[in-house]
Amino acid sequence: MLEALRALGLAGRVSFFRNNIDHYTGATFGCHENYSLERTVPLTKKNRLSLLAFLTLRVLFTGAGRVGSSRPSFLGGEDLPASESVPFQISQRADFIVNDCFEWVQHNRSIINLRDEPLADAQRFRRLHLILGDSNVLPSALFLKVGATRLVLDLLEADQLPALALADPVAALRLLSRTLKPPWRVALADGRTADALALAGLYCEKAGQLFRGRDPETDALLALWTRVLEALATDPESLVGVLDWVSKRYLLGQFRARQGLDWDHPWLESQDLEFHHIDPNRSFGLALAQPEGLWNPTGLERAKREPPGDSRACARSRLMRKIQNQASSYFVDWEQVSIPNQRRALLPDPFRPGPDRPGRRAE
User: What pTM value is reported for the model?
Assistant: First the structure.
């Protein structure tokens, strides 16, 4: 995209940002995560409550940070009470999540989206669609968000999730987002309160017991997850360059001190946005990125342009390249590629390239 802008002579005149809040209108934009699960995954009540708890707790290491707080327009859009209004918080999306589970996503945004739309063979797969997360800037934060969630879903498929239930996940999400230093406390369904980092550590510990050593990516992820949880408990600022919200708060704090600004100054909202610029030469966030300790796969440059060979994206990409100059119209979605008056290619399995090239799931 940046190269195309330069070729058109628009470099410096057009900007793109990857964030989740419009400070001017109060609108929010989702960061959608999608995870494929086996249809046989044990979605018992215990497992659903535990998954809800993890997705709530993970805000402590997945939040992108934001200046200010707001009430969604569909809740009236009125000013927040003083007890809820804060100058800075961990998550950009927390203010807009109003349900723990719900089927639709537009005006009843939930922690877990219940719509059963697998975008694959419905008898074999289900899809977990998440919209509660922030759009991360730092590579380590993005790696940890997606990787830790995938490991927890692996625990779910193995029926090994910790037995954990929060009293009110939505309230806990907002409280955690507004608490900028330890201890982070949450209310449990049994009436007790507990340390949120200790609870998050239960998932990391269990994932380590079951999955450590299975591949370099998993080991790197577990090491980063453990490091982040320990640092959040003792010295959050040591995670500048690792976690988005910590890095943004540090940068804006330095800026405020130099300029003598209050948190509600519009200039800070502008600086908040610049953190999310996709151009590495302009992004305040990427300038702080610490790559140390991340998984470093081979063939990274090739992977940016070619989909994994053990995915239907591989077959879809090959088909599109083949027909792009041959067909005047065609239909493409997750499950099929259809060309008028020609054979339709079905892609029901996310882990197979297609009928013309059998594949296997990555090891």
Answer: 0.89
